[in-house]
Specification:
The chain is of the alpha/beta class and 465 residues long. Helix 1 runs parallel beside helix 8, helix 3 packs across helix 4 and helix 3 packs across helix 6. The longest helix is centred in the N-terminal third of the chain and has 25 residues. The structure holds flavin-adenine dinucleotide. The site of flavin-adenine dinucleotide (FAD) has 36 residues, from helix 1, strand 2, helix 2, helix 3 and strand 3. It is an enzyme of class 1 (oxidoreductase). Keywords: Disulfide bond, FAD, Flavoprotein, Lipoyl, NAD, Oxidoreductase, Redox-active center.
Length: 465
């Protein structure tokens, strides 16, 4: 009889992908070790990503809303920002969630090791502990969930006034002049926060539009609403060089004659996967040219006993994708026939207004010459949107002409991120316009615009304002 102890399932990385995988695997009866190099679980999302950014965006939205309400006869004095308390609110939000994770790990008897893991070979990891010691950890199977890190541009010097998203979330100051490099989701969310706090925010984006890949009509609505709040937006433009001097950070942008000076510069020009630092080659784990670990639908890497999930395993780099993949990897590791089978993964920019999208976009449909019908419902025809001061919003649905099924959708306006879930479900369930249009939506709500857009697609007229 073989008396050798069975090695555990080891999860590397305690972010949303890693802790979801660890907890699901423990719930399925596996012996689980979770290795995280930071003192707190939660990864980028809980500590320096989704959650702290949303805490700040909530406060920013409240301030902007308070200002907007003067039109409706409700006037407040000028808002005072207490940076100390704002930081404390953000930190308390984060700490409440990360403490909850520790408790959930204990409850499930998931052993947590704090240290940085590297593969020694295809069966063993070496973990560098905080006290300088190395711990050897064997595994029967391993789930790599090491996430991603911000790209730092070589054109920028090292200076405390040049920060990445982690630095910007620390709210070092409210700069008079802020440059955001990168007009993607993270850049625009941080621009929203700092503009609400009172900074004059310029944005520079290499592509010819903000939020590259998102339909122009949606970004246009966002741009119109934000034009009065933002400084200059440089499109099709990149940072050539920067000098950090006593008067600020002087930045030279392509196509501009004069450099521009800023008190704070935020680099939000993309993220790269962390897997390459793990010694993956020692374990027979292959990566693609960008450093993402290549996986199959069961989240298995080129070594079938090693899985990869989340940001380390490819785009889109989103927490809900990481969680979904974490569950699949854990289930497959426990012998279940699970596979990644999501038709769509939604995306949301939690800006003001929010933009949410899912599935096929109008631009993609045009490019692929796919025959689609597009139904748009302008919020200027929604009673609730008008009452809420959000008549600028829009709900858009895309249907495949042949099957009639909804294949994509987008919403721009307050709470778009909360509402997009209905479209995700509709796409996953193979709904057509009648399914959505005949579903009674509560009146008057912003969500009702989804039903009204579907009715428009069916050619049925509606008399609900
Ligand atoms: P991560 O969360 O990056 O976790 C990886 C963990 O692995 C980290 O804790 C890291 O310390 C650890 N690790 C790395 N290497 C090792 C090692 N060798 N040994 C041990 N531990 C290691 N996504 C959304 O869906 N919604 C949002 O609103 C959103 N907002 C964001 C806002 C910002 C500012 C940023 C930066 C990101 C945001 N994201 C958002 C993206 C989201 O944070 C990531 O997609 C998500 O965190 C990925 O989860 P993950 O588990 O793959 O990796």
């Amino acid at each position: 009889v073989d008396q050798s102890p069975v090695e555990p399932l080891v999860v590397i990385g305690g972010g949303p992908g890693g802790y979801s995988a660890a907890f699901r695997a423990a719930d399925l009866g596996l012996d689980v070790v979770l290795i995280e190099r930071e003192a707190k679980l939660g990864g980028v999302c809980l500590n320096v990503g989704c959650i702290p950014s949303k805490a700040l965006l909530h406060v920013a939205a409240m301030k902007t809303e308070a200002e907007r309400l003067s039109v409706a006869g409700l006037r407040f004095g000028p808002a005072e920002i207490d940076l100390e308390r704002l930081r404390a609110f953000k930190d308390a939000t984060v700490n409440r969630l990360t403490a909850g994770l520790q408790h959930m790990a204990r409850q499930r008897r998931v052993s947590v090791i704090t240290g940085e893991a590297r593969f020694v070979d295809a069966h063993r990891l070496s973990v560098a502990l905080a006290d300088g010691r190395e711990q050897s950890v064997g595994f029967s199977q391993c789930i790599v969930a090491v996430g991603s890190a911000p790209v730092h541009l070589s054109a920028l010097p090292t200076d405390p006034r040049i920060v990445d998203s982690t630095g910007a979330l620390e709210l070092p100051l409210v700069p008079e002049r802020l440059l955001v490099i990168g007009g993607g989701i993270i850049g625009l969310e941080m621009a929203t926060v700092y503009a609400a706090l009172g900074s004059c925010v310029d944005i520079v984006e290499r592509a010819d539009s903000l939020l590259p890949g998102i339909d122009r009509d949606l970004v246009g609505i966002w741009g119109k609403e934000n034009a009065p709040r933002l400084g200059r937006i440089f499109l099709g433009c990149s940072v050539e060089s920067a000098d950090a001097g006593p008067a600020g950070v002087s930045v030279r942008l392509s196509g501009q004659d004069e450099p521009r000076t800023y008190d704070l510069v935020l680099q939000a020009a993309g993220r790269r996967p962390n897997g390459l630092a793990l010694g993956l080659e020692k374990a027979g784990v292959a990566t693609d040219p960008r450093g993402f670990i290549t996986v199959d639908r069961r989240m298995r890497s080129s070594n079938p006993r090693i899985f990869a999930i989340g940001d380390a395993a490819g785009e889109p780099m989103l927490a809900h994708k990481a969680v979904h993949e974490g569950h699949i990897a854990a289930e497959v590791a426990a012998g279940h026939p699970s596979a990644f089978d999501a038709t769509v993964i939604p995306g949301v920019a939690y800006t003001d207004p929010e933009i949410a999208w899912v599935g096929v976009s109008e631009a993609q449909a045009q490019e692929s010459l796919r025959s689609v019908s597009v139904a748009k419902f302008p919020w200027s025809a929604s009673g609730r949107a008008i009452a809420n001061g959000a008549a600028f919003g829009m709900t858009k649905l895309l249907f495949d002409r042949e099957s009639g099924r909804v294949i994509g959708g987008a919403i721009v306006g307050p709470n778009a991120g909360d509402m997009i879930g209905e479209l995700c479900l509709a796409i996953e369930m193979g709904a057509d316009a009648a399914d959505i249009g005949h579903t009674i939506h509560p009146h008057p709500t912003l969500g009702e615009t989804i039903g009204l857009a579907a009715e428009a697609a069916e050619g049925r007229c509606t008399d609900l304002p």
